[in-house]
């Protein structure tokens, strides 16, 4: 593992190819994320954005190219996947909370079992996180008793409890009611403002424009266009980007 | 019941697949337990009817009347119950214990990441699930030695131990399928969520997956216990001294009058019914409970 410094990208994706059998989903994708940056990946369904984000914490393997996270190469045959995943938090579209555990237990589980941290410390931190995602009073609720937005905020707190360096958000508001989307986005925005490195796959264009440092537009397994929000939304050049934006905005 | 649970889910607004009513795939049809539990409790009395009415229907001719047959049964009841039926229960409990332990291990083997282990466990499971129990019992009886010698000590293996072993094999195979089916019924998203939190496979399985499906395994597990208990009379064919073997011996000692058949076998039937019926009812109640509650 090469020593990583903050001047280098914390996540570096180089010419990544990914296929599911015959179907090539990523056809040479490259992007860099610096520490503290917030990037949004947008694009039509099936363009490979979720696949890309899942490759970053090795939920999907890649067939070509390289991905490094904090200097850890994901294509290294001796890769310690678990060590990588301790550094990269992930939040899913369907929240995927553990239904047999309360909100607080969901947050505490990984630090206790994986990091083997002291129970009192973990609990104190978990309660802080509950406060941070504005769910005081819901500590002892089971996921089934919480609304979608509340579950998603527990899921964010659960990932944060591992103190990750990078947070991945895979269409985290796509399954939510319009009213609850906002409470989740506010939580992510708070995180971004605290300097957490965030990679989001999203359909929330307003949110992307407001929070992202850089936006990538993917279509058909390649990055078609990218840039800071201002130039991306106002001066898109590629016809595919223009068409997509005209449909969405 | 289905519409009831669906409305519950709507009310709770869930989209978690784990909260949907649960059914093991190979239990799609009606199970023995479902059938048994669907019977009204007075079925037991109907089964006992021959016992109750037989003495009234007496033959005038012949020197051995059904009243005598009934009196013979009453004489034998304590012995048949204590030395016979309780022994059936004992056999069923031991066979269930060993079958469950071996079946749980085999079931986990079926979802192993090692292809060789997975295939071996699958093969063993299918072999014993799809063989007639009686054939398995005969093979075990004939294949196992009646005594083994360890360090010069001769340890005899009684027939009932062989019977326990023989009955535990099909139970093992069916428990194996229950475990495999239950684990697979948990959505892959739960595996991914745990993996993305850096849980290793063992932690994911024991802390996340199995706790979620443990309760769901209880009703089919109890179903197999009821089936096993009702199958214990098979051991009489191996000469194990359980209730059917002893009933036959008792009838022999009463000079094998044909009038004895109905009272004696009805008695056994009633005992099995009153033992298995509550189990079936509890199983169905649990099935309903866990279908909607986590």
Compose a concise summary of this entry:
With 249 residues, chain A is an alpha/beta fold. Chain A is built from 9 helices and 10 strands. In chain A, the strands form 2 sheets. In chain A, strands 6-7-8-3-9-10 form a 6-stranded mixed beta sheet, sandwiched between helices. A 4-stranded antiparallel beta sheet of chain A has the order 2-1-4-5, covered by helices on one side.
Describe the structure.
The complex is a heterodimer of chains A (249) and B (294). With 249 residues, chain A is an alpha/beta fold. Helices cover 37% and strands 24% of the residues of chain A. Chain A has nine helices and ten strands. Chain A has helices at 49-56, 81-87, 103-113, 119-132, 148-160, 178-193, 205-211, 229-234, 239-248; strands at residues 11-20, 23-33, 38-42, 64-69, 72-73, 88-91, 166-170, 197-201, 214-219, 222-227. In chain A, the strands form two sheets. In chain A, strands 6-7-8-3-9-10 form a six-stranded mixed sheet, with helices on both faces. A four-stranded antiparallel sheet of chain A has the order 2-1-4-5, with helices on one face. In chain A, helix 4 (119-132) crosses helix 5. The longest helix of chain A is centred in the C-terminal third of the chain and has 16 residues, at 178-193. Chain A is globular. By secondary structure, chain B is mainly α. Chain B has one domain: MetI-like fold (Orthogonal Bundle). Helix content of chain B is 71%, strand content 3%. Chain B contains eleven helices and two strands. Chain B has a two-stranded antiparallel sheet. In chain B, strand 1 (147-150) and strand 2 form a beta hairpin. The longest helix of chain B has 45 residues, at 66-110. The radius of gyration of chain B is 24 Å and the shape is flat. The two termini of chain B are 17 Å apart. The A-B interface holds A 57, 59, 82-83, 85-86, 88-90, 92, 94, 96-100, 109-110, 113-114, 142-144, 147-148, 158-159, 162, 175 and B 12-16, 18-19, 189-190, 192-200, 203, 207-208, 211-212, 294.
């Amino acid at each position: 593992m090469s020593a990583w410094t903050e001047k280098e990208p914390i996540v570096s994706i180089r010419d990544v190819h990914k296929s599911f059998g015959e179907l090539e989903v990523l056809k040479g994708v490259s992007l860099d994320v610096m520490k503290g940056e917030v990037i949004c990946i947008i694009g039509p369904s099936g363009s490979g954005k979720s696949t890309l984000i899942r490759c970053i914490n090795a939920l999907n393997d890649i067939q070509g190219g390289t991905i490094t996270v904090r200097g850890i190469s994901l294509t290294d045959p001796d890769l310690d996947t678990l060590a990588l995943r301790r550094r990269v938090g992930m939040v899913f579209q369907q929240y995927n909370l553990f239904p047999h555990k309360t909100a607080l237990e969901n947050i505490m589980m990984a630090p206790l079992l994986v990091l083997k941290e002291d129970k009192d410390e973990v609990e104190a931190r978990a309660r802080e996180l509950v406060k941070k995602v504005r769910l005081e009073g819901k500590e002892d609720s089971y996921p089934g008793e919480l609304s979608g937005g509340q579950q998603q905020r527990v899921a964010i707190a659960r990932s944060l409890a591992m103190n990750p360096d990078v947070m991945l958000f895979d269409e985290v508001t796509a399954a939510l009611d319009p009213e609850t989307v906002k409470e989740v986005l506010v939580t992510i925005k708070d995180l971004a403002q605290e300097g957490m490195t965030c990679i989001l796959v999203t359909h929330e264009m307003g949110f992307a424009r407001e929070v992202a440092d850089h936006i990538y537009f993917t279509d058909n397994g390649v990055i078609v266009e990218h840039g800071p929000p201002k130039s991306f939304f106002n001066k898109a050049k590629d016809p595919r980007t223009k068409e997509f934006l005209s449909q969405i905005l | 019941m289905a519409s009831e649970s669906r409305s519950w889910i709507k009310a709770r607004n869930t989209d978690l697949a784990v909260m949907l009513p649960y059914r093991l795939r190979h239990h799609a049809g009606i199970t023995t337990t479902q059938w048994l539990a669907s019977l009204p409790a007075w079925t037991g009395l109907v089964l006992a009817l021959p016992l109750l009415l037989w003495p009234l229907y007496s033959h005038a001719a012949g020197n051995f009347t059904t009243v005598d047959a009934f009196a013979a049964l009453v004489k034998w009841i304590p012995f048949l119950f204590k030395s016979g039926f309780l022994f059936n229960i004992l056999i069923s409990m031991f066979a269930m214990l060993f079958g469950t332990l071996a079946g749980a291990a085999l079931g986990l083997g079926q979802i192993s990441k090692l292809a060789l282990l997975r295939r071996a466990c699958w093969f063993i499971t299918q072999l014993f699930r799809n063989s007639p129990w009686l054939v398995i019992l005969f093979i075990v009886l004939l294949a196992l030695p009646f005594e083994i010698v360890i360090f010069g000590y001769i340890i005899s293996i009684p027939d009932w131990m062989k019977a326990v072993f023989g009955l535990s094999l099909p139970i093992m195979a069916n428990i194996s399928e229950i475990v495999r089916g239950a684990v697979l019924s948990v959505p892959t998203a739960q595996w991914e969520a745990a993996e993305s939190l850096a849980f290793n496979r063992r932690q994911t399985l024991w802390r996340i997956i199995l706790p979620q499906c443990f309760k769901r395994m209880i009703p089919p597990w109890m179903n197999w216990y009821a089936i096993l208990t009702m199958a214990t009379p098979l051991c009489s064919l191996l000469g194990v001294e359980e209730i059917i073997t002893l009933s036959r011996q008792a009838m022999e000692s009463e000079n094998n009058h044909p009038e004895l058949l109905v009272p004696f076998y009805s008695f056994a039937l009633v005992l099995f019914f009153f033992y298995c019926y509550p189990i079936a009812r509890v199983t169905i109640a649990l099935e309903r409970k866990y279908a909607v509650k986590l």
